[in-house]
Design a protein that fits this description.
Helices cover 34% and strands 16% of the residues. By secondary structure, it is of the alpha+beta class.
Length: 153
C-alpha cells in the first residue's frame, strides 16, 4: 500500500509517496526528490556520507526510516546556494578541502551542526566532531582547516 508523507525539506513542504514507511530517508531524498548532496556510502550509518540535519541535529539518513522523521530536514543543497554559499561551503573551496568529494556532504553537514552548537571550536573539538566521518582520500587536515576558517579562527 502506497502511503503519502509530507516532509519539510530545505524550507519547502513536499509530499512523497512510498510503498514502505521504513524506507530509508536517504532513498527518498535521492530517488524521490532528486537531491544528491547526501550520498550512499556504507549503508550502515558509519561513514557519514549520508548526513542531513533534522531540526538542526545531524542524522545518518541511510539508517533513518522515513517514518521516524518528524522535523525539518536540511540537506547540503539547503545549506547554501551557488550565489550565496554557506560559510562552510566557501571555506571548503578556499582550503581545497576535497579531493574525490564523496565524503564532503557528511563533513560539511556534521561541521555545520558543530558550528551551530559551538561557533568557535578549537582544533580538537573539530577533530572529535568529525571522528566518525570517513574520508578515504586523506584530506582530513584541509577539512579541519576549512571548519576553523568558517568559524573565523
Amino acid at each position: 500500500m502506497v502511503a503519502t508523507t509530507a516532509l519539510n525539506v530545505n524550507g519547502k513542504t513536499i509530499s512523497v509517496a512510498v510503498n514502505d514507511p521504513d524506507t530509508p530517508l536517504l532513498y527518498v531524498l535521492r530517488n524521490e526528490l532528486g537531491l544528491h548532496g547526501p550520498r550512499f556510502g556504507c549503508g550502515l550509518g558509519q561513514c557519514g556520507a549520508c548526513t542531513v540535519h533534522v531540526d538542526g541535529a545531524p542524522i545518518r539518513s541511510c539508517v533513518t526510516p522515513l517514518s521516524a522523521v518528524k522535523g525539518k530536514i536540511v540537506t547540503l543543497e539547503g545549506l547554501g546556494t551557488s550565489a550565496k554559499p554557506h560559510p562552510l561551503q566557501e571555506a571548503f573551496i578556499q582550503e581545497q578541502a576535497l579531493q574525490c568529494g564523496y565524503c564532503i556532504n557528511g563533513m560539511i553537514m556534521q561541521s555545520a551542526a558543530l558550528l551551530a552548537r559551538n561557533p568557535k571550536p578549537n582544533e580538537g573539538e573539530v577533530k572529535a566532531e568529525l571522528a566518525n566521518n570517513l574520508c578515504r582520500c586523506g584530506t582530513h587536515l584541509r577539512i579541519v582547516r576549512a571548519v576553523l576558517r568558517a568559524a573565523g579562527i
